[in-house]
């Protein structure tokens, strides 16, 4: 394999590792999985998110009680992502969409960008500095959850901010009975 192709493959692998790191952050926030969340950050990483500025661990400890008290669930969805790699440092911009279902059944949405400096230390890419640019927010009208009247809808598990969430189940199995609804419902 020629050097240019090998360099492109290494760059693609680095970008994939950075994308995986970003996903660990989001999933850790949404599942209340502190260890997973912290695995996205170097121990000395700095976070600047809304009024908070400090360590990633302190940010988690600051944000989780608010999320738990006010919201039933959150989705930190990652969108467009650019990564510029220079040796063992990378700069990344990731658009995000945040959606929360609040305990009062209202919804809250916000969007913006995570601007991150990643560093590769001991062969592993993690966030060293994050600035959260919150660019908009709204409160859209809430609607009932679809298919809530299906008798076994929760048989495969329900969304949970804990290791009880179906995404942690190994092996993932189906516990619902076969059903093919008519086109009319």
Structure summarized in a few sentences:
Helix content is 26%, strand content 39%. It has helices at residues 3-30, 34-38, 56-70, and strands spanning 41-49, 52-55, 71-86, 89-102, 107-121, 124-138.
CATH topology-level fold name: Nuclear Transport Factor 2, Chain: A
Shape: globular
Number of domains: 1
Strand content: 35-45%
**Kindly state the mean pLDDT as a whole number?**
95
Main sheet: strand order: 2-1-6-5-4-3
**Succession of helices and strands:** HHEEHEEEE
Number of helices: 3
Largest sheet: 6 strands, mixed
Q: For the record, what CATH class applies?
A: Alpha Beta
Protein name: Nuclear transport factor 2 family protein
Region (Disordered): 154-185
Biased composition (Basic residues): 173-185
Pfam family, one: SnoaL_4
Summarize the structure in words.
This is Nuclear transport factor 2 family protein. Pfam families: SnoaL_4. With 185 residues, the chain is an alpha+beta fold. The chain has a single domain, classed as Nuclear Transport Factor 2, Chain: A (Roll). The protein contains three helices and six strands; from the N terminus they run ααββαββββ. Strands 2-1-6-5-4-3 form a six-stranded mixed sheet. The longest helix has 28 residues. The model has no long low-confidence stretch (mean pLDDT 95).
């Amino acid at each position: 394999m020629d050097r240019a192709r090998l360099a492109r493959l290494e760059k693609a692998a680095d970008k994939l590792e950075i994308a995986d790191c970003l996903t660990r952050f989001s999933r850790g926030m949404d599942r209340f999985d502190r260890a997973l969340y912290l695995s996205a950050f170097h121990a000395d990483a700095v976070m600047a998110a809304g009024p908070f500025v400090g360590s990633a661990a302190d940010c988690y400890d600051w944000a989780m009680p608010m999320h738990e008290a006010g919201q039933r669930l959150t989705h930190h969805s990652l969108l467009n992502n650019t990564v510029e790699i220079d040796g063992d440092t990378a700069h990344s911009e990731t658009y995000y969409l945040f959606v929360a279902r609040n305990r009062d059944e209202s919804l809250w949405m916000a969007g913006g960008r995570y601007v991150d400096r990643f560093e590769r230390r001991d062969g592993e890419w993690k966030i060293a500095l994050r600035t959260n640019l919150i660019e908009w927010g709204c409160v859209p009208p809430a609607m009932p959850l679809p298919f809530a009247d299906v008798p076994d809808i929760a048989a495969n598990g329900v969304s949970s901010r804990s290791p009880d969430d179906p995404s942690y189940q190994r092996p993932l199995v189906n516990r619902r009975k076969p059903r093919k609804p008519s086109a009319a419902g």
